[in-house]
Amino acid sequence: MRLPLIIFRIWLVRVGFAVGSLLPLRRHVVLASNHGARISGNLEAVRIEMARRSPKLGVTVLAHRPSRGVMAMIMAAFHAMRSGYHLARARLFVVDDYYFPIYVVSPRGGTTIVQTWHASGAFKKLGYSVVHKTFGADAALLRRVRIHSNYDLCLVSNERAAAHYAEAFGLSLQKFTWRLGIPRTDPFFDPAWRNDAAAAVRRRYDLPADKRVLLYAPTFRGERVTEARHTEDLDFGQLQAVLGEDHVVLVRLHPFVRSRMRLAPELAGFAVDVSDHPDIHELMLVSDLLITDYSSAIFEFSLLERPMAFLAPDLDAYERERGFYFDYRAGVPGPVFTETGALARWLSLGAFDLDRVRAFRDASFAIADGRASRRFVDQIVLPALRSTVS
Fold it and tell me: Which of 258, 257, 240 is nearest to 249 (CA)?
């Protein structure tokens, strides 16, 4: 980020915050994300639980997706001021990712800020863990912005992950809890949701019941989310030649990637682009196996106790660009391949090690029981709104 833009954005947030600070705090919850035009994951799970428990509870959703171009810059400026204003007025401000406005103000007494993050475990490095890598924040930003500051509480899935996120955020372990669970995992424990969501996905994409469904969900490449691009490592033609007509591959690119993957006409009926599907969890329900490279979707998929495979020909380069919190080859819950042919042959054999998946699941989640959203509302939302500090 260029220095003038950093300074201008800081100024916009602080103007909005100053205006909001002229008014009293509200018994209000703000759910804020820079992931897209709508909230999802942890924030959506919490919103649903709040609506179920207290329909009249004041909730504001701030959802914005960074982009490029003049109009995108105008919208980003508006969002910066609006975020600053709501940050100044909310009793509880909940985010699920890096959220710039939080780091450039001094929050008012009586405001609680909670970081839920958008991944269930600690996998790819982030924050202060990557400042020396190409994916990390640039020096101009770090000189002026205390990234990942001002969190009062951070949700993590287990104690080991807490240590990694403490490093990434530059915070003490006391700021982290793994005793509430991860709200975004709750639907996996709801049989009615699982049945209804799976049926809806099958109808939407006309998935035959007699075909084995593979979900291909690679993460994005690039040093910035506004420049995110997809990988072309998987050879769909080769995969089709080996697996035959009894398979279908759902291709789900990372939400940061704006370009679509080009699928050859001869792949019709075998490879289906589902990148516009809003909830990857729904896609997981109909998938017999997950193929990915470095996606944190592996944590939620492990809850289904289904096999996973990893196609990572650029592992050494990705390690240099970003890196991991554990040894990749030994730590992921499935075999690692560098080319499609070997992956396809492994898939055709069908000899999957589900014990490895279960061990990964058990190590990844201290609590996963379908009640994380309820605990979040009981132990975080309601106490924050009862606060009398102003």
Answer: 240
User: What average pLDDT does this structure show over 44-71?
Assistant: 89
With the C-alpha atoms ordered 104, 34, 290, 371, is the resulting torsion angle positive or negative?
A: positive
C-alpha 361/C-alpha 208 separation (Å) is 29
Region label for 109, one of left (φ > 0), alpha (ψ between -120 and 50) or beta (otherwise): beta
DSSP 3-state of 223: coil
DSSP 102: G
Question: Can you tell me the distance from the alpha carbon of 148 to that of 127, in angstroms, rounded to the nearest whole number?
Answer: 7
Alpha carbon separation from 235 to 7, 257, 311 (Å, rounded): 45, 19, 11
Rounded mean pLDDT of 67-85? 88
The reply to whether the predicted model has a pTM over 0.85 is yes
Query: Which one-letter DSSP state was computed for residue 381?
Result: I
For 379, which DSSP code? I
In this structure, whether the domain defined by 3-186+370-386 belongs to CATH 3.40.50.11820 is answered with yes
Residue ranges per domain, the chain? 3-186+370-386, 191-364
